Amino acid sequence: MDTLPQGSHFNGLYGVITELKAHAALHDAGGKPGGPTDVVAWTSEDGDCFAPGCMDSMISSGFKQVEDFPSVLDLECVRFADALGR
Questions:
Q1: Of 31, 35, 43, 61, whose CB neighbour count within 10 A is largest?
Q2: CA angle, corner 2, sides to 69 and 20, nearest 5?
Q3: How far is CA 42 from the centre of its chain?
Q4: What is the pLDDT of residues 43-83, one digit of tens each?
Q5: Cα–Cα distance for residue pair 44/4, rounded to 1 Å
Q6: How far apart are CA 5 and CA 83, in angstroms?
């Protein structure tokens, strides 16, 4: 998980942990969410490693396909699709 130096208090892994803790607290209190919920940990949404940003969420939402980003490389020349496969 990435966290940017200028990111907010809930950037990266901290935000994911906060959501998991909120779900656990709701469960422990006997509460139930108003509908289905998911906690999602996106990677490189800010575009700091792979640009443009938000590629993971665009693919997961069906807005784009991984094939729409065939030539996106990080600074070590790792292809976006290969990084997702790992």
A1: 43
A2: 110
A3: 1
A4: 667 777 788 888 888 888 899 998 898 788 988 999 888 88
A5: 10
A6: 22
Cα of 19 vs its chain's centroid, Å = 13
Using CA atoms, how far residue 83 sits from 18, 44, 49, 62, in Å, is 26, 11, 11, 19
Tell me if 72 sits within 8 A of 80, measured CB to CB: yes
Distance CA 51, CA 80 (A): 9
Query: Could you please report the per-residue DSSP string of the chain?
Result: ----TT--TTSTHHHHHHHHHHHHHHHHTT---SS-------SSTTSSSSSSTTHHHHHHHTSS-GGG-TT-B-TT--BHHHHHH-
pLDDT score of 6 more than 90: no
Q: Which residue has the tokens 């976006």?
A: 80
